[in-house]
Amino acid sequence: MIVVVLNGSPKGDRSVTLQYVRYLQKIHPEHDYRIFPVARQIGKLERDQRAFDAVMDQVADAAAVIWSFPLYYCLVCSQYKRFIELIFANGRRDVFRGKYALALSTSIHFFDHTAHNYLQGICDDLGMNYFGHYSAEMYDLVRTGERERFLKCCENFLAAAAAGIPTAPRYPPLRPGSFVYEPTSPRGDIDPEGRKVLLLYDEERPGANLQKMIHAFAANFSGGVEVIALTDVDIKGGCLGCCRCGLDNVCQYEGQDGYREFYDEKVKKADIIIMAGEIRDRYLSSRWKLFFDRSFFNTHAPTLKGKQLAWIISGPLGQLPNLMEILSAYGQLQQANTVGIVTDEVADSPQLDALLGELARRSVRLARQGYVAPGDYLGVGGMKIFRDEVWGRLRFVFQADHRHYKRHGFYDFPQKDFKTRGVNLLMCTMTKFPPFRKRFLEALEKEMVRPLKKVVADK
Ligand SMILES: Cc1cc2nc3c(=O)[nH]c(=O)nc-3n(C[C@H](O)[C@H](O)[C@H](O)COP(=O)(O)O)c2cc1C
User: Which fold has domain 197-377?
Assistant: First the structure.
């Protein structure tokens, strides 16, 4: 059976994820594996139609496709995202239709689920028979049990493809709206009060709703809004995954393009940041993905702490809860406050005018208050993964993170809370005695709320 492997790592042959494929290849040499480094060669595939078509021809010949990729910022890397965009832009969905798909990733399990949700949506859009995903932790392959688990998944996948088992799509096709925004001129009376307002968008599409939304939003301010297109930022290429930034936050591209200066001088110095973009397949554009991936020179340290972050999005975001989760996680992990998200999924233009106006007003008000909403499961849980990884196995690679985490009290391990440990020891011992246990259970509800009641009573 021909199995096409679409290697989504910018590292090409040196990809960690690809080693899983190589292992499968060794154990099951009876299949014909054709591996294409589509992320690494994205420039060529963009420029050279013949090279792109050659990959598509191979997919057409295959019975099974393995999407093999590393996690990058809750998704695939910008190069792989671009490859997916090229499939749709070139009208090549036909070659994927009916092929069996397995999504294989390696990561530290930080938002691996959102990447897999995304890729499953893409497989559904391509009419593939999506078998499932395998989300490996980077070094699972070195463990005997994990290797066995991985093989079982692959063997089931290959058997399913050979047998042509039935599969069902999970994600219905997106229904793009037909609303055309006709903005009215706002009063332009919002004073940013000396704060820097930065509006970033991915590309100029005159006459598109997004362009009108950007202008209408900015026109709410009496001045001081800087609007920058990401296409105007000098970005030489996507993150290469080399992790050289881990020691001192110095990117391999340093001195070769303008990304670092742009991020340090514009993004980090803004007080209110508005990110604007159109939905492209089931995410934003690959240009936006490039912006996020390249910001990895900051590694796992938040760089937008205390800033107000808002999103202006054109397209069916309401049908993409996965993307909403990614946007929410981004703000939280950056320790910024997400002011809100305004889309063009509205009843009419006056409603959109009002929403954009309110977004502008609220971003200034919350900046004045210094308000940052508390994190939820995404931010709190995500940060624990980073904390443990940076303190542990990743520390020698990401030394800059370790310094940052130490300096800013990120190492809030519960083992260090000696008071709680003492209470736990005492209570765990005492509750072994039946009379105390009985009294404990009777008083539990009342005691749980006691410290909170005290705060209310003292007010
Ligand atoms: C720019 C960048 C972003 C990353 N983002 C994530 C992430 O969101 N979640 C995660 O678990 N790992 C993330 N990682 C870690 C990689 O997914 C992981 O190291 C992977 O095994 C690399 O695979 P590869 O060698 O096949 O490229 C990121 C790494 C880089 C360089």
Answer: Rossmann fold (3.40.50)
